[in-house]
Backbone:
């Protein structure tokens, strides 16, 4: 597991050879002129608005990572430096079992690469198989999603793009990913930028009104409803999360105390012990 120190982002500017310390497994002394000298792409995983994500193998350690590649020309064209710096800063602060691990950042003369835990599947890919997923499995997924967002919201982090494609999975466990639009709130700060995926956006975001992490709660309500759980407790939770009035949505942490999730917690703890 990465320590706090080696989780900190450090830009490795390959061309100028500056700041060559990296939060990755220790490497022999060697000059890297391109990202491809260090990583070999083995599978395309997905495409974002400004980035491409690949499964890649580290040529030094043979470890598998997900690498998120953003071209510097795109960063300059769309003025993404602030957003990218913000994403890296937030990722470097996170350490939760249901959030994709961040391992570091590299760059060369053409690209910036964010190095992450590799997850091949996502909640979205399971949507065609929902009928094959039993009620207990759905409840476990919901519990882990809520655990991750309780952790984020405790740290005043608003994800702002909560959707099934960004809820990754590895070995049947949830991993929240893509913090490209995430913001860490300061004090009583509110946000007003209209961003996210329209179908999952909270009403106050769509209308250009001020919002905070309760916007994430609405998105979670939409996703949990799509899982079609039969539990009345979960259906009631969805009703609360999807309230148009953000003040009526409650907090993610409160929902973790529901009786149904106490049972899930017990099942998960027994699985870990085994």
Residues:
């Amino acid at each position: 597991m990465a320590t706090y120190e080696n989780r900190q982002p450090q830009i490795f500017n390959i061309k100028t050879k500056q700041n060559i310390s990296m939060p990755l497994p220790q490497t022999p002394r060697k000059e890297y002129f391109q990202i491809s000298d260090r990583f070999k792409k083995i599978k395309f995983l997905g495409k974002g608005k400004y980035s491409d994500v690949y499964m890649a193998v580290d040529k030094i350690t043979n470890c598998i990572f997900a690498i998120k590649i953003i071209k510097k020309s795109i960063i300059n064209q769309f003025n993404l430096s602030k957003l990218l710096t913000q994403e890296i800063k937030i990722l470097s602060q996170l350490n939760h079992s249901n959030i994709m691990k961040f391992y570091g950042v590299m760059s060369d003369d053409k690209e910036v690469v964010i190095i992450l835990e590799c997850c091949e599947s996502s909640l979205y890919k399971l949507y065609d198989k929902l009928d094959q997923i039993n009620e207990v499995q759905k409840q476990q997924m919901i519990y882990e999603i809520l655990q991750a967002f309780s952790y984020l919201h405790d740290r005043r982090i608003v994800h702002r793009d909560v959707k099934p494609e960004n809820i990754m999975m590895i070995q049947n466990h949830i991993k929240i990913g893509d913090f490209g639009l995430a913001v860490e709130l300061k004090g009583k700060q509110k946000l007003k930028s209209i961003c996210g995926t329209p179908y999952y956006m909270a009403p106050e975001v769509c209308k250009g009104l001020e919002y905070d992490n309760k916007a994430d709660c609405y998105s979670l309500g939409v996703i949990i409803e799509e899982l079609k759980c039969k539990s009345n407790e979960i259906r009631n939770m969805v009703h609360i999360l999807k309230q148009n009035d953000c003040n009526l949505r409650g907090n993610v942490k409160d929902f973790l105390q529901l009786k149904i999730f106490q049972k899930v917690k017990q099942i998960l703890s027994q699985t870990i012990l085994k």
The mean pLDDT is 87.
